[in-house]
Specification:
- The chain is an alpha/beta fold.
- It folds into 3 domains: 137 residues, Alpha Horseshoe (MgtE N-terminal fold), CATH 1.25.60; 102 residues, Roll (CBS-domain), CATH 3.10.580.10; 171 residues, Tetracycline Repressor, domain 2 (Orthogonal Bundle).
- It contains 22 helices and 7 strands.
- Strand 5, helix 15 and strand 6 form a beta-alpha-beta unit.
- The longest helix is centred in the C-terminal third of the chain and has 31 residues.
- The radius of gyration is 30 Å and the shape is globular.
- The chain starts with a helix and ends with a helix.
């Protein structure tokens, strides 16, 4: 008899692979597609793209130059998969939509799931939106127009209008027969919603549980009561938080009267999480979504405002330095060491800011624990301030041969690291309390605080102790 342990030991681990090995799109394929476009090999192009999923095709379109992108879309026009459009970056999608034209775009939207159709339509400029709506069948047009009345980034914009709902007195057999015979059900669904006579959701039944139950069993006996219902006007970030906390794969959406009007699926929540995370990251850097594909002038214009605000704060820091010009002129070493204090404070503050902004986004910081988080970050600032005070002070002492300069920069380091911990926590908490996105404005305020406090502490102590 063979030893299973020995057999297991002889099994070689599978080779590690990256995402490109699983997906169809890779650098080699992109290069081949570019060559085929340049050579105008339309047939070869179609065969190269055919195996790709719509998300991969969207990535391919984004990777191409605008000229090649336009030629590829023209070649794909007769078989352009509408599922590609929602996956495109907004800037690229506008280019592709303009090239396809109103009629083709309307046909594409009509073939999409209702949530994707609404998302695509809402991203168009108003004039284009009206033109596309006028070319869409009346029934779908009414549904999309209703969806546009809901706030942007709300559950009403995110939900799909097609779902499966049955009364609680039906049996498993009746429900299965209904799902087989109905022609208006969504392509993919995971839960069946149970509704009362007023069409309000009172429970859910997972497909796995339905299929494992006998046909005569009543739905009321196997449903999960009190489902997590999503108000139609709830912000999509809040919806994503509900899905995360409750481990949902789908959820019913209700109107102001509590009636079931739609469903949100987990694949849409994945997109929301990615979108919100990317948006916060862009805001922290003072840039906008789509900068990678926008024209040079448009990108420069969009970034100018944020850079101008940073310039004003830089002048404030320069004004502080100007107050100690006499001390700097007498002790040149101060000018050499001065940037170290501000830089260390800025980096420490950015670390704290990143942690707190993320915690706010995930609702890990609330009024109940905000003071504890603030205290912890101040103590962390003190801890690192003491360590770097010894390190930087020693280097400054050896470099300048004056122990007083080492003591000054060490003390300034402690003060600025404390200020960084305090500001990195208090600024996003304060902005959040006033309903301002902490990711959008925290960086500028933090840089101002750490620069001003750092320069004031270092140069003020130097002027007091050394002159």
């Amino acid at each position: 008899m063979t030893d299973p342990v020995s057999e297991a030991a002889d099994v070689k681990p599978a080779a590690a692979v990256n995402a490109e090995a699983i997906l169809g799109l890779g650098p080699d394929l992109v290069a081949t597609v570019e060559d085929a476009i340049d050579s105008n090999f339309a047939y070869e192009l179609k065969s190269l793209i055919a195996p790709l999923q719509y998300g991969e095709t969207a990535d391919l379109i984004e990777l191409l130059t605008p000229e090649r992108r336009g030629r590829l879309v023209e070649i794909m026009r007769d078989r352009f998969d509408p599922e590609i459009l929602p996956e495109l970056d907004e800037t690229v999608r506008d280019e592709v939509a303009s090239q396809l034209g109103t009629a083709t775009l309307a046909q594409a939207i009509a073939r999409l799931e209702s949530d994707d159709a609404l998302y695509l339509l809402s991203s168009l400029e108003e004039t284009k939106q009206r033109a596309v709506l006028s070319a869409i069948p009346a029934a779908l047009r009414a549904t999309l127009e209703e969806g546009l009345t809901y706030p942007e980034d709300s559950a009403g914009r995110l939900m799909q209008r097609d779902f499966v709902a049955v009364p609680s007195f039906w049996t498993v057999g009746e429900t299965i027969d209904f799902a087989r015979e109905a022609t208006t059900l969504p392509n993919d669904f995971y839960d069946i919603f149970v509704v009362d006579p007023r069409h309000r959701p009172i429970g859910t039944v997972a497909l796995s549980r339905l299929l494992r139950s006998k046909r005569p069993v009543r739905i009321a006996d196997i449903m999960t009561s009190q489902p997590a219902t999503i108000p139609v006007r709830m912000d999509q970030e809040e919806v994503a938080f509900v899905f995360k906390q409750l481990d949902l794969v789908s959820a019913p959406v209700v109107d102001d009267g509590g009636r079931l009007i739609g469903a949100i699926m987990v694949d849409d929540i994945v997109d929301v999480i990615e979108e919100e995370a990317g948006e916060d990251l862009m805001h922290l850097g003072g840039v906008r979504e789509g900068d990678l594909y926008a024209a040079v002038f448009d990108t420069g214009k969009a970034r100018f405002t944020w850079l101008f605000v940073n310039l004003l704060t830089a002048f404030l820091a320069a004004a502080v330095i100007g107050q100690f010009r006499g001390a700097i002129e007498q002790i040149v070493m101060l000018a050499v060491l001065m940037p170290i204090v501000a830089s260390m404070g800025g980096n420490a503050g950015t670390q704290t800011l990143t942690v707190v902004v993320r915690a706010l986004a995930l609702k890990e910081v609330t009024r109940s624990n905000a003071r504890r988080v603030l205290t912890k970050e101040i103590l962390v600032g003190l801890f690192n301030g003491l360590l770097f005070a010894v390190l930087v002070g020693s280097v400054a002492w050896l470099w300048s041969s004056e122990i007083e300069i080492g003591l000054v920069i060490g003390a300034a380091m402690i003060v600025n690291m404390l200020a960084a911990g305090l500001a990195g926590t208090a600024i996003p908490l304060g902005l959040s309390r006033f309903k301002i996105d902490p990711a959008l404005a925290s960086g500028v305020f933090l840089t101002t605080v750490t620069d001003v406090v750092g320069f004031c502490a270092f140069l003020g102590l130097a002027a007091w102790l050394l002159l």
